[in-house]
UniProtKB/TrEMBL annotation:
Belongs to the cytochrome P450 family. Pfam families: p450. Gene3D superfamilies: Cytochrome P450. One of its GO terms (biological process) is sterol metabolic process. This is Allene oxide synthase. It comes from Ficus carica. Keywords: Heme, Iron, Lyase, Metal-binding.
Length: 500
């Protein structure tokens, strides 16, 4: 390994209230805010939702859709139709939240209900999940939610000692593949390599074997993708040419893709998990769960929630670090290598002593959250507050939070559109309360009584170890990125080995 000793280009000392990126935004719950009508319109029945859908996917694009209405209404809270609309959604009418103060109402289970809103205004058929409403679609008030989430916590706790060792081996294989391909080509698409590696890790963590040793075979992630895509494709556009947009809209935004088309693939996935995860499926009875139901829920947790999130997160980490450039690569490498040498390896304790690494991961989760949408129904008549005003919401109305705007709120974060690797270092770590990627504040913990991701800490750990292993092995890299479905596509151009 090379000896890198650049000076951190960050404020010194770290940090005090006068330094950049430490803020004290207005407190939520200001009784003096004026009460206003929620601006916006749903338009004519059927026609309004179709027009909004075309703006969202084609005319304005995802961010453009929200920005155009924010500018029009001069409000971060407004009414519009959420995608995908007719005929997939019975009611596409939503109240949209785009700021950091209003957004957390979506986490208050005393005021909102999360039943069947995991995918928003529509819900995929339960035939995708063996006929069960899996935990992601349950509200915390439903008894089964408590049982399933308790079971998930138990499963994760039982695998705690395997988190890092299994991941490090998996990442060695990932980087070997990336390096090998780049040695014979001028550029390499990182996403397929990343997808394969992340699924292999998730499967091996829960099932104690490689998917290649099961009916899934060596490309098990592709089988999972075939099952996963029909459930989320109504929320994306494939980027087809303009003359094909109408065809795409009819095929993937108008009617749900029937589950029977992927039933054979799901049967293969179920067989693999059912036969390989016996040790943890046997624990289901302790939580009042049938083995069959536990297996379908485990598949959703592993393949949809975890693998689906890592499909977005892995490329996102390299996208933003690639843009940050070699100085920040050197800074990270210096911190990582110094701590690993001092601690004698890559351990939980070592990771906690890497403040720059922690900040980088949180900053990526802030600027490009893996799950951009959150939804809920109002349980009662309630009042939502933004920075500037209060708004009445009626019982039963759907609330739709677009997270990338909330976590890029300029009244909370300075230069919110800029990737700042040290944004959460020192006292500025307090602003993690405004990072919402896990369906909850980063400063709060997932519990059986909330909808925060049970694997939140595992995802953060995976992101940190990914970068640790990378910068133990390489000094720097170059890449290009582009928008890809709900995330980013990353093309590696070069890798510079440590010490070369």
């Amino acid at each position: 390994m090379s000896s890198l000793s650049p000076t951190y280009p960050i404020p010194n000392p770290l940090f005090d209230e006068e330094q950049p990126f430490f803020f004290n935004p207005p407190e939520e719950g200001d009784d003096q805010l004026p009460l206003k009508e929620i601006p916006g319109s749903y338009g004519l029945p059927f026609i309004g939702p179709i027009l909004d859908r075309w703006d969202f996917y084609y005319n304005q694009g995802r961010d453009g859709f929200f920005q155009a209405r924010l500018d029009k209404y001069k409000s971060t809270v407004f009414r519009a139709n959420g995608p995908p609309g007719p005929f997939m959604a019975k009611n596409p009418n939503v109240i949209i939240l785009l700021d950091a103060v209003s957004f957390p109402i979506l986490f208050d289970n005393s005021k909102v209900e999360k039943k069947n809103v995991f995918d928003g205004t529509y819900m995929p058929s339960v035939n995708f999940t063996g006929g069960y409403r899996v935990c992601s679609f349950l509200d915390p008030s439903e008894p089964k939610h408590n049982a399933l989430k308790s079971y998930f916590f138990n499963v994760l706790a039982s695998k705690h000692d395997n988190f890092i060792p299994v991941l490090r081996k998996n990442l060695t294989e990932l980087f070997d593949t990336l390096e090998s391909q780049l040695s014979s080509s001028k550029e390499v698409n990182f996403n397929p390599i990343s997808d394969s590696a992340s699924f292999n890790y998730v499967f091996q963590l829960f099932c104690d074997k490689s998917p290649a040793e099961t009916v899934l075979g060596p490309q098990g992630n592709k089988t999972v993708d075939i099952w996963l895509v029909p459930q989320v494709i109504p929320l994306v556009t494939l980027g087809v040419p303009k003359f094909l947009q109408l065809v795409e809209d009819l095929l993937i935004h108008t009617f749900p893709i029937p589950a029977f088309l992927v039933k054979p693939k799901y049967k293969t996935i179920f067989e693999a998990f059912s036969s390989s995860a016996s040790s943890i499926l046997e624990k289901a009875a302790d939580f009042g769960l049938e083995r069959d139901e536990a297996c379908h829920n485990l598949i959703f947790l592993a393949c949809f929630n975890t693998y689906g999130g890592l499909k977005v997160l892995y490329p996102s980490l390299f996208k933003w670090l690639g843009r940050a450039g070699p100085t920040w690569h050197a800074n990270l490498a210096k911190e990582i290598r110094g701590v690993v040498k001092q601690e004698g390896g890559v351990t939980f304790a070592a990771l906690e002593k890497m403040p720059l690494l922690k900040s980088v991961v949180y900053e990526v989760l802030r600027i490009e959250p893996p799950v951009p949408f959150q939804y809920a129904h109002a349980k009662e008549d309630l009042v939502i507050q933004s920075h500037d005003a209060s708004f009445k919401v009626k019982k039963g109305e759907m609330i739709f939070g677009y997270q990338p705007f909330a976590t890029r709120d300029p009244k909370v974060f300075e230069n919110p559109e800029t990737f700042v690797p040290y944004r959460f270092m020192g006292k500025a770590e307090a602003n993690l309360k405004y990072v919402y990627w896990s369906n909850g504040r980063e400063t709060e913990a997932p519990t059986v009584d909330n909808k925060q991701c049970p694997g939140r800490d595992l995802v953060v750990l995976v992101a940190r170890v990914l970068l640790v292993e990378f910068f133990l092995r390489y000094d720097t890299f170059t890449c290009e990125d582009e928008v890809f479905l709900v995330g980013s596509k990353v093309i590696f151009k070069s890798l510079t080995k440590a010490g070369s």
